[in-house]
Amino acid sequence: MSCAFAIQRSAFAAYAAGLRASANALNNNANNNPRIDGWAGV
């Protein structure tokens, strides 16, 4: 049980890291392209 939990936890950590990477990419894109109205507010 503890082994399965560890695998699940690491998978969730990787998923969360992927979300942060995607958010950072969107923020960087918005900063590089300020002409896109409202994009930085997402």
Features:
42 residues, mainly alpha, 1 helix, 0% strand, rod-shaped
Structure characterization notes:
- This protein has a domain at 1-26.
- It starts with a helix and ends in a 10-residue tail after the last helix.
- By secondary structure, the protein is an all-alpha fold.
- The protein has one helix spanning 2-32.
- Helices cover 74% and strands 0% of the residues.
SSE topology:
Elements: H1 2-32
Give the number of DSSP strands.
Answer: 0
Indicate the structural class: mainly alpha
Helix content: over 70%
Biggest sheet features: none
In short:
With 42 residues, this protein is mainly α. It has one helix at 2-32. It is 74% helix and 0% strand.
